[in-house]
Amino acid sequence: MRPIMVAGNWKMNGLHADAQHLTQAILDAALAPTVPEVVLFPPFTLIASVAALARGSSLRWGGQNLFWENHGPYTGEISGPMLRDHGCRYVLVGHSERRQIFQESDEIVFRKVMAALHAGLTPVVCVGESEQERESGQTWEVLERQMTAILPALGANGQQANLIIAYEPIWAIGTGKTASPAQAQEAHAYLRSLVARKNPALAQKVLILYGGSVKANNAGALFAEEDIDGGLVGGASLQAGEFVQICRVAEQIGRGG
Ligand code: PGA
Fold first, then answer.
1. Mean pLDDT of successive 10-residue segments in the chain (257 residues)?
2. Mutate to test the pocket of ligand 1, among 100, 173, 238 (most ligand atoms within 8 A of CB)
3. How many domains does the chain have?
4. What CATH number corresponds to the domain at position 118?
């Protein structure tokens, strides 16, 4: 049985005081160790604020993006070793906002996945179709294309296991239009089958998170699905009470690591 993970993607939100408040609220909730990973993805400027409070606890944190080089003349960029230096274990790669607004191609996403792995970070790679792609019946094609681009990161035989996938249908992000548990399960099972083509044993182990308008009142039905291993939470992760409730839902489902 795979463990459940709950991740909070703060996007470009928050100041130091907000980071302290949110982090402290999660620490105060004293979640049971049956929820093995709760991970916060603050903006770069708030990583140190989160780390200062969370260090030594079971709460983890990561970056929302990274560049594929380790250092050099890349004004405005942040590298994997820099994130590691701040205690990050995870990094988001290929979020749809980066793919759409910052024109990150599948090739760029792959380079970033490799950079993350080389830096000792676990990439949480986001994939997902747009509304138009879903309506025109292209969902599986889009997911296959996005997955085919990153699967080489799993090594020749798929032995490299420290990669997490987040299925985030773009039409569900920040819209309040959550995918139904059945819709999400169908996509997750498909994504897992794509990993299985490379390595069936790894496909059983790899965590696949669902993202897109996850709230406390829909998390239970989503996380109960066989192939949904937790959530990547955007808007609701900025409300301490709501986010803690989502973690409690995961705790009750209790798929410990
Ligand atoms: P949302 O965002 O929960 O606000 O829909 C999810 C995400 O973009 O990771």
1. 94 98 95 79 98 96 98 98 98 98 98 96 97 97 98 75 93 92 98 94 94 97 97 98 95 75
2. 173
3. 1
4. 3.20.20.70
